[in-house]
């Protein structure tokens, strides 16, 4: 089977795997905010608290993330579909489309997310056409909102019957 055919099948398989949606932010060397939409996000470790995500090596803000010492992962709320699309678009002033502020860690924090995990960069790993960034969580904020789901190029929220109340 050709590599192109495997790539097509891989995209089909991964497109049928439901994921959460995140926007990852940092500041560049001049202190300007940088961010992008990411669904390649996973927990890694509880001791220490580690998570990972990956960025395309062709991304325009790759160096801001690789050379930066910190980043923030925003797990988007189901109401943030426009924000998700804006942060995945090219040639858009992404931060002009949302409310945000700098945290005590000097990271851009976007309002309205389900949760925000601020991290210091633990390790970067080159892997194919992407770079994996592993971060050590140094701050967690969570709000009472429904997280966003992404499946087959559509956005949704978690159905109410899946919620467990304490």
UniProtKB/TrEMBL annotation:
Residues 14-157 form the Flavin reductase like domain. One of its GO terms (molecular function) is riboflavin reductase (NADPH) activity. Keywords: Oxidoreductase. The lineage of its organism: Bacteria, Bacillati, Bacillota, Bacilli, Bacillales. It comes from Peribacillus simplex. The keyword Zinc does not apply. The keyword Protein transport does not apply. It comes from the Bacteria. Pfam families: Flavin_Reduct (PF01613). This is Flavin reductase domain-containing protein.
């Amino acid at each position: 089977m050709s590599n192109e055919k495997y790539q097509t099948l891989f995209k089909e398989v991964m497109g049928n795997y439901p994921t959460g949606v995140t926007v990852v932010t940092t500041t560049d060397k001049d202190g300007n905010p940088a961010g992008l939409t990411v669904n390649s996000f996973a927990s890694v470790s509880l001791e220490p608290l580690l998570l990972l995500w990956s960025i395309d090596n062709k991304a325009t803000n790759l160096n801001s993330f690789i050379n930066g010492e910190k980043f923030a992962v925003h797990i988007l709320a189901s109401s943030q579909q426009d924000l998700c699309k804006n942060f995945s678009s090219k040639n858009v002033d992404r931060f002009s489309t949302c409310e945000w502020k700098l945290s005590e860690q000097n990271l851009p924090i976007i309002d309205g997310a389900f949760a925000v995990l601020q991290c210091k960069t633990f390790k970067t790993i080159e892997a194919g056409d992407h770079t994996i960034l592993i971060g050590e969580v140094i701050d967690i904020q969570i709000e009472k909102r429904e997280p966003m789901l992404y499946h087959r190029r559509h956005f949704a929220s978690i159905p109410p019957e899946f919620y467990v109340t304490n």
